[in-house]
Design brief:
This protein has 123 residues and is of the alpha+beta class. The chain is built from three helices and seven strands.
């Protein structure tokens, strides 16, 4: 599946979740509802995908978890915060580097209009 098609389908699912629920819930609620929408739309994903750190010749399981790994080619990091900050972007970019996944979406559900809370990333 092409990135544009995949990312647009995921964004469409996120917009549907936001349309029904609106802002103000916990990130975990949006995660479960987005998982439902992705499944309903036939999009393969993994929730809370473990992401180890490879340092020199060792693998460290530090407890890092990618919110959603979609089709093994798109990382979706969910937030429900007042504003996206540099640390949120750094988290997504780090997960992308560690996993080798080149495409990411940072989605902040705590917006009146969800499109204002979506930020794409490409490595």
């Amino acid at each position: 599946m092409e990135f544009d098609d995949l990312s647009n389908r995921v964004i469409g699912c996120a917009i549907e979740v936001h349309r029904v629920l609106g802002p103000g819930l916990l990130e975990s609620a949006y995660e479960q509802c987005l998982a439902y929408e992705l499944k309903r739309n036939g999009i393969a994903f993994e929730l809370q995908h473990p992401q180890p750190v490879h340092y020199k010749e060792i693998r460290l399981d530090c407890g890092f978890r990618i919110d959603m790994l979609v089709e093994n080619q798109l990382i979706v990091e969910l937030k429900c915060v007042e504003a996206i900050k540099g640390i949120h972007e750094a988290q997504l970019l780090t997960y992308m580097k560690l996993s080798g996944v080149r495409i990411g979406l940072l989605i902040n559900f705590n917006n009146t209009r969800l499109k204002d809370g979506i930020k794409p990333f490409v490595l």
